[in-house]
Write a sequence for this structure.
């Protein structure tokens, strides 16, 4: 129930109507019986600075940022935590000492399903399909895990080179390689963690996959296959992985857990307490899969 003392959280974006964040955050807040509400705020890029001033004026506790604000918001914040500086993007903002502080929980969300696996990450070679914004969080996450190397695969050499150059001043120690798509068969033959960060295969184009079924035969038998897409579940990419003769020895992960865990990390930061991750996950599972 909204009252005169209800505290505000939310997500800013343009568009933002499709966001599932209000669903999972409000489910958690209801379970905790806290007088908070999490709202979507559609904000045009030219109004971003005004929005921050308005949020401060009305006492917004914190908010998430999604496209197109993840990078544009950075110069407007008083402080940016090192992980967000390294990635070059902010997805979570909180208030401290009357200042807006930016951080990034996408990395924590990405590594959450991985860090408890029985793996020698120092012997793990990761291959990342795509070189957009999501790939940046994945590269940082693989580095946090201690992967031996990270190879980013893309179609345009210039964009790949720009991607690699953008990490030169990073505080993270990254063994980063870049390759174009036509080298993929050779690359994945030595890959232990394969991550799709592209939108290929996302609803409604569910019959598409970033790589064809035949390429999965080149992967080592213990490869972890991770698709950041969470709808449909499984994607065609993950279906190909599961149809392989080596399926039994592989771990296949979709993007739902990353979505849940990055949100839980943000909510925990705002509330300064543990949050019911299982409730957040269940709310999304019910919405997406029934």
């Amino acid at each position: 129930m909204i009252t005169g003392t209800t505290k505000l959280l939310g997500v800013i974006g343009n568009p933002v109507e499709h966001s599932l964040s209000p669903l999972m955050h409000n489910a958690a807040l209801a379970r905790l019986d806290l007088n908070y509400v999490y709202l979507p705020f559609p904000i045009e890029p030219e109004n971003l600075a005004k929005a921050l001033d308005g949020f401060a004026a009305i006492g917004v506790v914190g908010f998430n940022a999604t496209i197109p604000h993840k990078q544009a918001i950075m110069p407007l914040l008083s402080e940016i935590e090192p992980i967000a500086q390294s990635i070059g993007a902010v997805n979570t903002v909180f208030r401290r000492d009357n200042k807006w502080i930016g951080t990034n929980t996408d990395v924590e969300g990405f590594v959450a399903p991985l860090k408890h696996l029985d793996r020698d990450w120092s012997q793990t070679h990761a291959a990342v399909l795509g070189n957009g914004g999501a790939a940046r969080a994945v590269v940082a996450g693989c580095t946090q895990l201690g992967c031996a190397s990270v190879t980013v695969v893309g179609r345009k050499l210039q964009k790949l080179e720009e991607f690699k150059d953008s990490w030169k001043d990073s505080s993270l120690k990254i063994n980063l390689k870049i390759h174009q798509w036509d080298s993929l068969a050779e690359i994945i033959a030595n890959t232990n963690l394969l991550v799709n960060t592209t939108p290929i295969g996302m609803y409604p184009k569910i019959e598409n996959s970033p790589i064809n079924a035949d390429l999965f035969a080149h992967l080592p038998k213990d490869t972890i296959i991770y698709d950041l897409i969470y709808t449909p579940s499984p994607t065609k990419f993950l279906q190909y992985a599961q149809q392989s003769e080596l399926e039994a020895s592989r771990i296949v992960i979709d993007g739902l857990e990353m979505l849940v865990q990055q949100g839980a990390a943000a909510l925990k930061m705002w509330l300064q307490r543990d949050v019911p991750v299982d409730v957040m996950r269940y709310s999304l599972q019910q919405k997406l899969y029934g």
Summary: Residues 102 and 248 are 41 Å apart (CA to CA). The chain has eleven helices and twelve strands.
